[in-house]
Each structure stands twice: as structure tokens, then as C-alpha cells.
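[scheduler] slot 2 assigned
[scheduler] job type: sequence-to-structure, two independent chains
[scheduler] chain ordering preserved from manifest
[runner] begin chain α
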Amino acid sequence: MDNQVRKDLPTADQLLAEMKRVRYKRKFRKTIVGTISSLIVVAAVAVLVSMLFLPVLRVTGTSMTPTLYNDEMVICSKRSNYKRGDMIAFYYNNKILLKRVIGLPGDWIEIAEDGTVFVNGEELIEPYVDEKAYGECDIEFPYQVPESRIFVMGDHRSTSVDSRTVKVGCIAEEYIIGRLIFRLWPWEAIGVL
């Protein structure tokens, strides 16, 4: 019977092998937990950076064609010194709209019947517009941009609803998210805007 008990007991080699297996399992768990923790921290930092400093936005609609197309992804830089020609993102009726800065506070805007835009009496050179159009417009010209506001228009002038209508009007600076700086998607069009 004593012999029977000894056969059931593990040998020294078996004990060493089992201890090695348990240590490996413990080390593997630590590695997995460490990796997952690191990924969570990196993801949290990425979300914070994108929310606070560089929001990523998806283009919806065609008001900015041919510059931006539906379903493209762009990065927006939060800053406050905008200039004519910048593309900006802003809040309007619980939506985010993307338009181009045409007039700054105090500028006088005039739009001819053929869609030619004049700012402070000078024709605005707009290489980003394929086809000039008067579009939907119900404001009186010449129009002066109020203080702390920005006059914006879409690049697809015939379909864009923008500062030319009183329902959108000029954009207050506190509603502006930032300036569009980079296109992320699609891959073939990736680059600085």
C-alpha cells in the first residue's frame, strides 16, 4: 500500500514542470492585462485630443463640392483667427456644417446676379468654385458683416444654404468649432486642405 501512495505522488521533474507552467500562465496574464491597460490609456488620450484639440468630422452633403465630397473625413483645428478662404466647421441647429469664410467682421459683401462675389468692393478670386451661382439668397446687398461674426458660403454655390439666407446668417464666433486642416479619408485624397 505504501508503494501505491508513492506512485500517485508527483516526481520532482513533474513538480518543476507544473511550477514552470503556473509561472508562465501568471506572466502571460500580466502581459495581457498590461497590454489592454496600455491600449485603453492610448485610446482615452486619442479621444481627448480629438475632442479638445483636433476633432475629426465626416462630410455630409454636397454643399462643399468640388473641394469636399460626401462621406469624406476631415480633421479640424480649433483656433480663432480665421481668414478669407479658410474652410470652417460650425454648429447650426444641432448639426455641424462645413463652409468657406468669405467675409470677416466689418467687411462689405456684394454678390452679382452671375454669382461673382465682391468683398469691400473688390472681386473675390475663388479658384475653389467650379460654377458661380447666385443661389438661395434673401439678404440685401451690399451687406456688412456684423462684429464677432463671419460670412460663410459653400463651394457649390447653387445648392449651398449659407450666410446668403437669413435662416443661417453670419456665424457667431462661439459656434465655430475650428478650421478644416487635413483630409483623412478617402486614402487616395488624403492630405492638407
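[runner] end chain α
[runner] begin chain β
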Amino acid sequence: MKREPYAKEAIKIIDLCNKKQLTGYIAAHTVSNLFYILRKDFSVVQRKEILTALCGIFEISGIDRSKIIAALDNDGFVDLEDCLQMECAMEIGAEYIITRNLSDFLIPELPL
């Protein structure tokens, strides 16, 4: 979407993951969130193509009952979706979370 001020950095990260120089992950629920977010600018066919391409670039971290319960029990987050992102990152042993939403990820477990 080329959202500033981080568009150039995001493109670099995606390119490194596409070239398999980095292993990037997205949480499974991110796919459905993106399908919804992209609806204003892209047709259903285009959104499916975009998301299929992203699934080819990134590994997918699943959401299951234990992650949902852990997120619901975590008083450190107000936003359930953000907490699920963190639960997925913790499970796969992520070194970083890449986000535009720094204020919701003030957690010591992972650097931003």
C-alpha cells in the first residue's frame, strides 16, 4: 500500500523475504484482515492474487485455542489482534516484530 513514512523500509523487508535472505512470518489472521482492508482499492480477484503472493513470500503462523486464550488472559494488551500477533511471534521465536503500531507493542519479549 506504500503507506508513508515506512514504505521504503517495508519494501526492503518484503524484498529480502522474497529473495529468501530473511525468513518472514505473518500471523494467519493477518491474511483475513488484509483481505478486508484491501477491499477499498482492489477487486476480490486482485485481493486473492495479492494474498496468494504474500503466502508465497512469508511463512504463516497459525492461530489456535492456546494463543487465543493466552491473548485474552494478557492484561498488557488492549487490542486482541495485536496480542495475537505477539503470541504468534513468540511461538515461532521471532527476533523482531515489524509494525507501524509501536505504542501497542511495548513489551520486553521482542524488539520492534
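[runner] end chain β
[qc] chain β: The first strand starts at residue 25 and ends at 27.
[scheduler] slot 2 released
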